[in-house]
């Protein structure tokens, strides 16, 4: 017997911030559609009347926020937003569980980004016969755009450039998010003020006019020629008509492509893990080592790997991860290697999920000798070779380096990163231990874009996260997985988009799901 239910839930997911709870602007709204198949029948004389209850997990307490009680329980499923978005066509199907010995059916979760969150308007204006404000010249006009608020106030949302010494300026085209311009309300008033620029900042007011997004959408025509009016001059001068006119030259709207667009369009994200096996981490047999093999508790590397890995694996469709080590001597000849497979298989370094990586990591600790130096460049170049082979936007590569932060090949690593910045690739560095991470902060490049031999990186592709900032005082527990997730993934979406933009790569259309894709059900 088959029971179906379909419902929709709106969730706010921050593509930029990746904070599943607090969702702050700029944000992407994701509509989650829920449907079920083959549910249990709990009613005697009819089929079940199912409803879906969405629980969210508390950030700190990890407790599920429960609604009020409801009737017969039909099953449950657990997943993250990342799992849904990262599934083919952003459609995740999972079996329902929770009732021992019963087949509870399946739940299908689909995510779709709501379009009004990401429309950008591009427009250009010119003016004619503006008032002359400068004694020895004409005017240096610029415009200020204001979004009206619900309480009647106005908020500045854009300033044009200054066009010097003219009463008939033509301003450069500019783009602005529709949310910034009118908050998605196409009839909301947009106020535009025109000023004459002065060097001392006391800009002279020329006049103003109002419009709306709906009116601007009409494009270039007589209806979008606006009189610039100075209310004070109008009161003082009986013959005053206006202080010039402003005309719309062009107007277009398009949706800004987002991280989710590319993922839903089929772009695959491939994560590679690289672990620091250098002697600066300490002898694994001693409790002071970051690699200490404690049978009762995970060491710093294992905790960081598990915590960060569980976050990123949701966005990797096949959950198979190449896992590398660097800075150790390997048997049988005990030569130092800066890119060895944790599972010992040079031809197939892939591990199955985070558990597979942890297992290979612990096995490596038993077989290799921690040594040095700490060279990042080989693992960066290793992933870059794969990224260089696929530059059409169908695949994007992320290298996760877990290290104690002591680096020996800074110049070579900088050069490798500058070269990798041209490729579909990002690097996440997680620092473990209590050392100073000045070198890692420098590689991050948030303050000063990284450069090598006079060449500046085309994009910022490195994100550094000190793992200790997310641990409790004992160093044994992660305080906030949500905050860690946010900071680890914070820059990946923009980095992916920046690569796609630089190569003019647009996301593929989302594959259309057809009910015929489902296997036939056997009627009872």
Commentary on this structure:
By secondary structure, the chain is of the alpha+beta class. 20% of the residues lie in helices and 28% in strands. The protein has 12 helices and 26 strands. It has helices at residues 81-86, 178-182, 213-216, 231-236, 259-264, 300-312, 353-367, 377-389, 410-420, 438-444, 481-489, 492-502, and strands spanning 5-13, 28-37, 56-57, 64-65, 91-95, 106-113, 119-128, 141-148, 154-159, 174-177, 189-196, 204-212, 225-227, 245-255, 268-276, 320-326, 328-330, 335-337, 340-341, 350-352, 369-370, 395-403, 425-431, 451-452, 455-456, 462-466. Strands 15, 16, 19, 20, 22, 23 and 26 form a 7-stranded mixed beta sheet that branches. Strands 1-2-6-5 form a 4-stranded antiparallel beta sheet. Helix 9 (410-420) links the parallel strand 22 and strand 23 (425-431). The chain is globular, with a radius of gyration of 29 Å. The model is unreliable at 1-27 (pLDDT under 50). Belongs to the copine family. Residues 103-226 form the C2 domain. Keywords: Calcium, Metal-binding, Repeat. Pfam families: C2 (PF00168), Copine (PF07002).
